[in-house]
Amino acid sequence: MARWAGVFGIALVMGLTAFGGRAATLSADVPAWLRAHVGTGEGQIAPVVLERARDLYKQQMRKSRVRNPCYMAMDATRPSTSRSGAPAKRFYTICEGRQTFTAVSSGYGSGRNLPQANFRNGRECARHFSNALDSNLTAGGSYLTAEARTSHKGYFTRSGKRVAFNRTFLVFDGMGETSNARERAIGGHQATFLRTQCRFNAPESPYADDSGFARLGRLVDYTSGRSNGCTTWSEDVSKRIISLVERQRTTLYIYPESRDINAVAKAAGNPASLAQKGLYWNAACLSQIGAPKFWRKQSLEPVIRRWRRSLPQQAAGELPICR
Fold first, then answer.
1. Which of 21, 116, 226, 307 could disulfide-link to 110, CB 3.0 to 4.6 Å?
2. Cα gap 81→226, rounded to integer Å
């Protein structure tokens, strides 16, 4: 953590040079209270991320596709951990009419390490991005929130009692490069999964199978860590966000898009070049990853399909009875 804090400290110096004139210029109509939250520091939103998120929201408002007073954004170039060691804030909810700005932690796509291609992301910074099916990677771009679906995952034990774990999944509809978001099952949800261990006799449970058994496992929290490509939040944040949008859809803009990734990759290693070209990337993460990479779905999806076909066929095993 001390090493990471040192790198992050460098970012505070480099961060102001990591994006140039075009990216750093804010529209004249950005209110003063919101400008106070713009920057590269902890809890702030980078100018280019805010500008694109606002443009998307205004565009969809004009088309009457959204009426929610708030919109959302995410900066997937930021690290997972802040200088204090707490989860870093890189997901934003902005309600201009209410003059509220909220920054929270969120997860990004983990990727995969396959024999034919390694596009696995580290725990602190995302280097790999893609909209390829089954890539488990984040795809930056424009989204609309859609319906919220709640599903049962199993039971876990709390204070000696077995408690049902039901998780709500907020579906995202994408546009352009992210238009396959539904096909990829991309959305937002609580950063918790149930590691199933056994099954117990629970004939009275509405979640029991045909034999009267229910799954029991251990909750695993991965707040601010890596996900399967979805946007993930802590339990309390997840509830707040889903409550905000489940009856009134809104926009979500995730940075970076493929054009940003490709441009930064070409200019990586030369902060002055980034500034001159008006490019932005979180400096601490750029220092760690060297250069980002966008994997085109046309080239990555065949690799993933071949890998899946190479896996041995395994019969579905039955969970053991809990002791």
1. 226
2. 12
Q: What is the CATH number of the domain that holds 35?
A: 2.40.440.10
Domain count, the chain: 1
Q: Does residue 114 fall inside a structural domain?
A: yes
Asked whether 111 and 119 are in contact (CB, 8 A), the reply is: yes
Is residue 253 within 8 A of residue 73, CB to CB? The reply is yes
Q: What's the Cα-to-Cα distance from 110 to each of 13, 124, 153, 262, 267, rounded to whole Å?
A: 28, 11, 21, 19, 24
- CA–CA distance, 265 with 124 (Å, rounded to integer): 19
Answer for the pair 176, 141: CB distance below 8 angstroms, yes or no: yes
| 283-323 pLDDT per residue, tens | 999 999 999 999 999 999 999 999 999 988 877 678 899 98
d(CA 301, CA 281): 26
Question: Can you give the residue range of the structural domain that contains 163?
Answer: 2-310
Q: Which helix (H) or strand (E) holds 76?
A: none
pTM for this structure? 0.90
The Cα–Cα gap between 143 and 132 comes to 16
Residue 321 lies in a domain: no
Instruction: Find out whether the peptide bond into 256 is cis, omega within 30 degrees of 0.
Output: yes
Name the CA dihedral angle for 111, 113, 118, 124, rounded to a multiple of 10 degrees: 50
Residue 207 covered by a domain = yes
